[in-house]
Each structure stands twice: as structure tokens, then as C-alpha cells.
Design a protein that fits this description.
four-stranded antiparallel sheet; mainly beta; single chain; Neuraminidase; 48% strand
């Protein structure tokens, strides 16, 4: 017979349920069963894809996150340039095109294979400089820069299908450059951004419930008002790395983290190898890998262990020096 806990458990706590004979994890609200599948069982390993980028790059390359070493060529996007990427267990989606052009393009690949991307559909808005996040069912994109103004639009698609995006809701503040790719199976978290080019930098953290539709709600604050951080997560922690804090503060190399199931401010994690912004980010249940960025253009990949704290460590190199490279994986926290 199962007895209630004497104290409220912390998010990430585990227990063995003797009634169901199943390992369970506390997600901050309730005990939920630990899935018995993994990307290693389903696809032979957790792959991280870096999709597109600036200047004018349509390259997709990939790494196996559990190893170290250089990235391998995967194929090409249907368009060149900026990519706001997200993924399910099987598919990687990327939206957007060149940094200085507006686009509504969405394309996709099958993560376990290699090859060129295929057309998926179109976003509800035509913009640039936005990010995305997903669970295994839905992929969404938020914010960006439209025709001379920042955007507060959030739209989404069902990853397993193809077709055009549908309206989800709105950001609390219209902005470009809010970090993406922090998600659990239920919640997506986005940090920072700026309300106009090179000004209006935000320190806010917003979140939404992926299975619903509606506007974002306040989560807390990051340490510094900044834009264009790289972000990735497992199901418990979201990592926010590097960024641009404006002409006076310039680039930053800080890494922060949040606990996705709670609300509150970000906490210091460690540092990246140098100060930069626009790094691409991918994650497995244990690692986050950060690639590329600008200060100047770079092809370096570094990694951290998500559930610890400390500075990033060298992983290898991507196939091309670029920034704005969208990150997608088949083992991130939303899956």
C-alpha cells in the first residue's frame, strides 16, 4: 500500500510506486510515470541538428550528443539563412530564411536519416529573427521582426502532419530574439528578447502551456536584460547561454538555468568559452550542446551537463562557421 509523502517533494524527485511497479518522477505538480523508451532505443542515439544560419547558410549538420567530435553533414534546408528550429522524437522542423529577408517558410527533415529538407507549410506571419519550441506533438514559433516592427505572434503546427501554422496566441511583449527550445512535455519557456533592433532589451521570462492556446504568462527574470541567447533543456531544467546585452554591454558568456515546472528567476550556471551571441543549442536528457555564434562567426561546439553547474567544455566543430543556426534534437525535454 502506498502512503503519502510527509513533505511536498521537489521537482525532479523520483520514487518507485509499489502499486504500479513503476518508477515515477515529480514534475512540480504531480507524480508521473517515467517513460520506458528513449532516443537511444528508438533511433540509435540522441542526435542534435544545427539547421541553416547566417550568413546565407542552408547547411544542416548533426552530432551525436552523448559523444564528442566534429559535426557531420546531414543535408540542406529548402532556403538559406536564419532558422528557428524545434523537433519531435522523429522530425526536425525549421522556419524562416535569410536574416535580412522576411519569410514564412517551414521545412522539415527526419532526424534519424540524412538528406535534404522538405516543404512543410507556411507560418501565419512573414518575419525573421524568431525562435521555436516543441513537445512531441506540437511545434511553435514566437515573436520576431516583421516589416519594420517587432511581432508578438505565436503560431503552431502538429509535427506529425504537414500544413500551414495556426494562431496560438501572443507574447506578453512584442519582441525579436527571445530564446527558444526550453520545454517540458507540458510547458514552453522563452527568455529575454528586444523590442526594437539594438534597443529595448528584456530580462523577462515568459511561459505557456503547449497543449492549450492563449497568451504567455510571467515566469520570472533572467539575470541580465539581453537578446539572442542560445537555449535548450531536458524535461526539468532549461539552459540559457550567451547573448547580446546592447552596444554598451555587448556580448555575454554567462550560462543561466531555470526549473521548468516552477516559477522564479534564473540562476547562474557557469560560463561559455567566450562572449558571443546567436549560438545554436540542442539537448539530450543529460547534455546541452552549444554551437557557432557571432563574435566573430564561429564553428566551435561546447557542451555542459544539464543537471550540474559549471563552465562549458569543448565538444568539437560544426561544418560551417555561422550564427542563427537553429537547433533541434530527438531527445530534448519536451519529448
Amino acid at each position: 500500500m502506498e502512503y503519502p509523502s510527509l513533505d511536498t517533494p521537489t521537482a525532479g524527485a523520483t520514487r518507485f510506486n509499489t502499486d504500479s511497479a513503476q518508477l515515477e518522477i515529480y514534475d512540480g505538480n504531480q507524480w508521473t510515470g517515467v517513460l520506458a523508451t528513449s532516443p537511444e532505443e528508438q533511433t540509435g542515439g540522441t542526435r542534435g541538428l544545427f539547421m541553416g544560419g547566417d550568413p546565407g547558410v542552408n547547411i544542416i549538420d548533426y552530432i551525436t550528443i552523448s559523444t564528442t567530435g566534429n559535426a557531420t553533414d546531414f543535408g540542406d534546408r529548402t532556403v538559406a539563412g536564419f532558422g528557428g528550429a524545434c523537433s519531435s522524437r522523429t522530425r526536425g522542423l525549421c522556419a524562416g530564411a535569410a536574416d535580412n529577408s522576411l519569410s514564412n517558410v517551414i521545412d522539415y527533415v527526419t532526424i534519424s536519416s540524412t538528406g535534404n529538407a522538405l516543404d512543410f507549410g507556411d507560418r501565419t506571419v512573414t518575419s525573421t529573427r524568431f525562435q521555436g519550441a516543441s513537445n512531441d506533438t506540437r511545434a511553435m514559433w514566437f515573436g520576431g521582426m516583421g516589416s519594420g516592427a517587432t511581432d508578438d505572434e505565436i503560431d503552431y503546427v502538429t509535427v506529425a502532419s504537414t500544413g500551414n501554422a495556426v494562431d496560438f496566441g501572443n507574447l506578453a511583449t512584442a519582441c525579436e530574439g527571445a530564446s527558444g527550445n526550453i520545454a517540458s512535455q507540458t510547458r514552453s519557456v522563452m527568455t529575454g528578447g528586444n523590442t526594437s533592433p539594438n534597443s529595448g532589451f528584456l530580462n523577462t521570462i515568459q511561459y505557456l502551456t503547449i497543449a492549450t492556446t492563449g497568451n504567455t504568462a510571467d515566469f520570472g527574470d533572467i539575470v541580465r536584460a539581453q537578446t539572442w541567447s542560445g537555449a535548450a533543456s531536458n524535461s526539468i531544467r532549461g539552459i540559457i547561454a550567451c547573448g547580446y546585452a546592447g552596444p554598451s554591454a555587448a556580448n555575454v558568456n554567462t550560462i543561466e538555468y531555470v526549473t521548468i515546472s516552477t516559477l522564479g528567476n534564473a540562476v547562474d550556471f557557469g560560463n561559455y568559452g567566450d562572449e558571443r551571441w546567436n549560438v545554436g543549442a540542442v539537448a539530450s536528457p543529460t547534455r546541452a550542446c552549444l554551437a557557432g555564434g557571432y563574435a566573430p562567426y564561429d564553428n566551435r561546439i561546447e557542451y555542459i551537463q544539464i543537471m550540474t553547474t559549471g563552465d562549458a567544455v569543448d565538444f568539437g566543430d560544426s561544418t560551417n562557421a555561422r550564427r542563427y543556426n537553429g537547433g533541434a534534437s530527438n531527445g530534448h525535454g519536451g519529448l
